[in-house]
Amino acid sequence: MSFSVLSPWMLLGLALVAGPLIAHLTGQREGPRVRYPSLRFLRAAAHRVRRRTRVENLLLLLLRSLAIAALALLFARPWISWRGYTAAGIDPDADTVVLLDRSMSMGRRAGEGTAFDAARRKAREALGDLGGGRAALVFFDGAAQLVPPGLTHDRNPLLRALERAEPGHGTTDLGTALLRARDLLSEAGATRATLLVLGDGTATEPLPDLREGWPTGYAVRYVDLSQGPAANRWFDGVEVTPGERRGEAARVDARISWTGEAMAGEAPISLRVDGLDPLRATASLSPPGPAARRFTLVEVPEGQRSARLALEPPDGVLAADDERCFFLDGQASLKVRMVSGDPAPSPRDDELYYVENAFLPRSGSASRVTPEPIPPADLATLKGGRGRVLVLADLADPTPYAAAIRAFVRDGGGLLVSVGDQVRPEAWNEALGDVLPARLAGVKELGERTFEQSPLSFATPDLDSPVFEVFRDGGAGVFGKVRFGRVMGIEPELPEGARVGLRYSDGRPALVERAVGEGVVILFTATLDDDWTDFPLRSVFVPTLHQLARHLSGDLPRGEGASVEVGQAAPVSVPPGPGRLAVVRPDGREDPLDAEAADARGVVAYRDTDRPGLYRATWRPEGGSEEPREISAFCVDPPVAESALRPLSREEAMARVPGLEWSGQGEARRKAEAGAQVVKRASLAPWLASLLLIALLAEAALVARRAR
Amino acid sequence: MRPGPPGSDPAPGQSSPLHPDLKERVDRLLLLARGAVPGAGHGVHRSARLGRGAEFAEHKAYSPGDEARHLDWRIAARSDRYVVKRFQADRSMVGHLLVDASPSMDFGHPVEEPASPLRPRSKWEAAAGAAAALAWVLLRQGDSVSAARAGEGAGAVLPPRRGVAQLPAVCHDIARGLLPGAAGLGDAVGELASRVRGRALVLVATDALDEDLSWIDALAALRVRGADVALLQVVDPHERDFPYRDPSRFEDLETGEVLRVNPRELARAYREEFRAFLDDVRARSLAAGLSHVVLDTGVPLDASIRDFLALRQRTRAPRNDR
Predict the structure, then answer these.
(1) Which of A1, A22, A224, A532 is most buried when burial is the number of CB atoms within 10 A of its CB?
(2) Do residue A104 and residue A242 come from a single domain?
(3) Does residue A55 belong to the interface with chain B, where contact is any CB pair within 8 Å?
């Protein structure tokens, strides 16, 4: 240990210590003369207090000398330095960036707490060890987050951020974090710096080659805080398929991966489907790879159901990957009432012929849609409400039923209007102009009036939209082959809340949708039979009609309930019309979403997917019911790559990161003791100030005691 | 205001210890002996004998020779017996004033100017002023007064005389001031004892700083001989409270010896020592049958004298104490 001062000439002040010493040694000062009646009592008093006074005088001398010495030393700004060991041997005088891994794998146990807890302790220790250099703190997982204010001499904001930090559920991208720290240091003009990485020795993203352009003064120390060999079980994936045998409603195939010998063996798992009793099974985990376990469901309740696979009991390594959320599509039975505006004695010529056949369940079909043609007169007694769907095909004049149709929609019903030769646009505009997604403008004929030679077809649909997402895996190209000989023109200005769901190849709207009250109205600007188009003859007709029916029934948006990985944006479809959109997270927090920010497809991206689990989107229409209704849901999965606890190769890391030193938790100390000692420094100013204060207080107390 | 008697003004070059204001304030006070006085001549003190006086003493059966004017006619009318009333005779006495003139009496705390004439500037002023005022009280009530400064020889003692004409002589005698190098109080008290005859009033004003306090025993002997002895112990507030803060050189007024002292170090111990000294003098005085009063120079003289006289009034012996 050595002692040094920043202002040595201030040490001259130590000579002042001689003052009290001389005064003490040379005795009391003369003082004025006082003529006094008798010295008798003074002598007696002096005799009595002699011993105590002598001790007090010595004490006062000591305290005063101490105070003067402390003051002189304080002005000299002294430091002590000693050979010591800092966290992973960092240089306390250089600038330091602490990179703290907060990826999901940091949540695994390491000794008393998690690896993240150990990293936090280590970071605190490292920040405390630092001397005159600046420090910064970066949390990283798949992205790097710099803690404000960046590189600073003030450790307090960094320590406070450390206390508040929690482990996340993201992946590990060390390369991005190192580059962020390097850029930070370069921008701050640091020539000598230490990048202290506190992680668990795993990575999910490949480490880039950082050798080029890496400043020579920047040393990287990686402290691996993992304990013991990596071992974990996790759900690698889940696949839901329809049942293939009689009595099978669906099959759920769970894939379970594992790493580490300790995890081999039987793994009890459970499946919980919303509305069903839990199912339990055991997967056998044995080398060389993942195991699969199938659950067969004899029934799936109507509607899209959330489901959860879970390891029971959890493996105790990473809680987040011991569960897996997904959806089961138990389609509801849906009755679609249909009114034909162009009935014909021959069913083949009826306007509803293709629609009815499209909805009729075939043997082995999973469809639960039942068509129900009704005469127009029944429209007067139609009841609205969510889940009810009405198709008006080529109805000439809705005027007699306008009030009932309007009430049906406003109460939550779904209405599909198709046109044809019978439709009188002016009558529709007059009777239901306030409900239609667009005002009809008259029939537009194309080519030779026959669709075979017409150049008009559908444009490619938006496969992210709920209606057309079923064509992602194929069939989207068929829309371009559909031909139209005639279409119904609509007025170019759409009412508020209306949007185009599908266009023709020339840009005219083919499907226009509008939210009305609690319900939805879709206008198809062509026929649903083969009078104007060959659409009913195409393969995409049946699935499109099914999707439209489900969409109108309010059941379809759940179809987007895909799963995304932690950190990825999840699409949320915004229902037509004004309203309030929100996402309820797995932790119960409700995040409002700006419906106005929806793109042309009516989709808003929800990006705060930082926690695995089930997220539910809710919608409350403006002026509608008070309680928001759930419109969609999606699962956020933990990153599988993170669950694998894939170790970061030391050799590879050392080859790609210049000057990288790698140490384990206990290894850091051993390595430091083996020669990576650094000079630690500490200012004595706080101690001297305390000493000065104590000396002055004691001196004052002593003098006050005498004066009493 | 009654004019002072001729001759009470100070002699040229000397200031009178009895300021006119003080004299006026003590003008109507009485200083009574604590017991009966055997002296001759009329005065205000109770006599050991019955005789002429204002205060009724007893009845006595009439016998020939008794003065008929002393017959109690009321009793004669009621009981047909003849009795005469007898009265306590009033007598005068001799007051012996002894004032300590040693250099230690030349000490006083600073007084804010303009100071009241009744506020003594030193222990000596307090002692001299009190002696002169008490002399005036005694002379006014018809007693004889003798005065002396402790340390003077027997020849310098002012012999006792009655009448207000004695006051200038007393003042003059006291106004001669302190006696540097004066001997201890013991000699002065011994000399005084040789002059006191019978029961008398002896007033000693001193700071009692002599290390040898055997003079108190000598005063006790006077008390045994029938004298009424009062000790006025003069104390200055600075001497008692020791308010000094800065290191100083303290010079003994009597010996000239110098002692360097840091008052902060020993103030508390000094106060304890001085309090013990005061308690000692008081205890010895009371044990010797003396009246002991502390004359504080911080208190106006007239108030101190009133307190002294009131104290004596309270502690006066009962009427039948003979």
Answers:
(1) A532
(2) no
(3) no
Phi–psi pair at A189, nearest 5 degrees: 75, 20
Predicted pLDDT of residue A137: 95
Structural domains counted in chain A: 5
Contact (CB, 8 A) for A401 and A356 = no
Sign of the alpha-carbon torsion through B247, B253, B254, B256: positive
- B264:A49 CB<8 A: no
Domain of A271, CATH number, reads 2.60.40.10
What phi and psi, each to the nearest 5 degrees, are found at residue A164? Answer: -80, -20
Query: Contacts by A453-457 with C-beta closer than 8 Å and gap 24+?
Result: A454/A483, A454/A484, A454/A485, A455/A505, A456/A483, A456/A484, A456/A485, A456/A487, A456/A504, A456/A505, A456/A506, A457/A481, A457/A482, A457/A483, A457/A484, A457/A504, A457/A505
**Minimum-distance CB partner of A35 among B207, B253, B262:** B253
Suggest the residue from B207, B248, B297 to mutate for an interface test with chain A (most A CBs closer than 10 A).
B248
B320 pLDDT band (50/70/90 cuts)? very low
Could you tell me if A470 and A605 lie in one domain? no
**Of A558, A609, A567, A605, nearest in space to A586 by CA:** A609
State which of A511, A537, A554 marks the end of a domain. A554
Q: Which domain holds residue A169?
A: 86-229+645-676
Same domain as A599, residue A660: no
Does one domain contain both A407 and A297? no
- ipTM greater than 0.90: no
CB nearest to B270's CB, from A27, A29, A42? A42
Residue B55: per-residue pLDDT? 58
pLDDT band of B11, cuts 50, 70, 90:
very low
Distance of CA A432 to the CA centre of its chain: 44
B269 in A contact zone (CB under 8 Å)? yes
Nearest to A35 among B107, B261, B269 (CB): B107
Q: What angle do CA B85, B87, B88 make, to 5 degrees?
A: 160
Average pLDDT for A265-283: 90
Does one domain contain both A200 and A256?
no
Residue type, B97: L
Final residue belonging to a domain, choices A554, A589, A617: A554
CB contact under 8 A, A37 and B107: yes
The mean pLDDT value of chain A amounts to: 85
Write the CATH number for A605: 2.60.40.1930
Distance CA A141, CA A172 (A): 4
| Cβ–Cβ gap B261/A46 under 8 Å | yes
Residues of B in contact with A49 (CB under 8 A): 265-266, 269
Paired tokens of A76: 């000299």
Residue A471: its pLDDT value, please? 87
Residue A607: pLDDT over 60: yes
The structural domains of chain B, ordered by start, are 20-36+93-314 (3.40.50.410), 45-91 (no CATH)
Q: B253 contacts in A (CB within 8 Å)?
A: 35-38
Q: Do the beta carbons of residue B305 and residue B234 sit within 8 Å?
A: no
